[in-house]
Amino acid sequence: MSKKHKISLTEEQLVLSLRNHEKVAIEALYDMYSASLYGVISRIVIDTAIAEDVLQETFVKIWHSFSSYSTEKGRLFTWMINIARNLAIDKIRSKDFRNQNKNQEIENNVTSIDEQNSTIYKPELMGVKDLVQTLKPEQKSIIDLVYFKGYTHVEAADELGIPLGTIKTRLRMGIQELRKHFN
Amino acid sequence: MEDIKAYIESGILELYVLGDVTPDERLQVEAMALKHPAIKAELDAIERSMELYAKENEIEPSEELRHRVLGSILTNFGDDNNFPQKAVPHKTNVVSLPPRKEPNFYKYAFAASLALLVASGVALISVYSRLQQSNTQLITLQLQNQHFTNRVNLLDREISVFRDPSYKLLKLEGTAKNPALAVTVAFSPARKKVLIDMQNVKLPQNDKDHQYQLWALVGGKPVDLGVFDAPADTSQMKEMKSIARADAFAVTLEPKGGSINPTMDQMVVLGKF
Lengths: 183, 273
Description:
The complex is a heterodimer. Chain A is mainly α. Helix content of chain A is 73%, strand content 0%. In chain A, helix 10 (153-160) crosses helix 11 (164-182). The longest helix of chain A is centred in the N-terminal third of the chain and has 22 residues, at 23-44. Chain B has helices spanning 2-9, 12-17, 23-35, 37-56, 63-163; strands at residues 168-174, 182-188, 193-197, 210-218, 221-228, 237-239, 248-255, 267-272. Chain B has 5 helices and 8 strands; from the N terminus they run αααααββββββββ. Chain B is 54% helix and 19% strand. Chains A and B meet through helix 2, helix 3, helix 4, helix 9 and helix 11 of A and helix 2, helix 3, helix 4 and helix 5 of B.
């Protein structure tokens, strides 16, 4: 992937040009965030073709509803990842998606269920070695469930069979670790 | 400050950044961040970390997808940008037309109204003159009709004279002086009527000072029955004075207005029953 062709702007520049509906804005937005957003979408929607559709829908929605974003609400990425995560969850809950899955072979289904429910660290998805040391596995699994898979912390508690208070503590501690790591 | 610290430590900010809050909680966090810079700063730090964490976990989509996604947006992008630009000159064109149209419409409407008015006036005058002509014709026809009615009535009366068996026709013949002269008289003793058939009066024309006078001879005595002129001004039956009985009729030429007694030497015709 040749990174030299990619457009990059500061967040302020990007927000301004998106407001002005400039052509360069959507290109920069894609180049800067498509991989991060696709990382989230791919962890929820396993099928590559469908995940790509969701990424497209995400950018279309960001473009058309950009007027509803304001810098006062926080960082642009936080707003965008919410859109991507919600569209991906909507997709796997939609009738179409469930009908498609019914027609899948049992073997594939088993794998996809396994993948969807997996909280095991997957090097091919993460590709991050430093973080192995940074985050404790029990912190990482909770953060990933909520941040990447769209679980609520209540659902994560049920899923992992851990008390809600513990879940909240681990989430906060894990994020504290990440803050230390990135600073 | 304790409240803010407690708020930060509650973990709600982390859940907000992870997208795990209800819409109400979301609004609350945003409001708190606006109000308290410390919360805003904390939130920003969490957001940056999570953004970097997402970056660490990124998965590069296929290069093909970039064209597809940007293509689908930029197709609409082109539409979004071109339509309003094109619409503006269109609009000015459209707007500039009606002001021209409206005066034209009223101008034509006014002209049409005027033309219609003139045409109506001409038509009215034409119809009025025809009405006048028709009225004149009607009056003429009524007069003619009256004339014919009168004539028919007269003829009826004349015919009735000939049909009525009580009338006797007597031809008064010329005297020795002028045997060619003749006058026809119709006499009905029952109706006491004497009529002269003016069409068959064969008498020389009388002058201004004289008139012919009809006499009835009753028991040898002459009785005045009135005067008439020759040639007659009508061809009708002229009704003379009434008499119930007569032995003979005679006509004399008398001074205008008639005489009390007939001038015997001026007798022109005579007829006896």
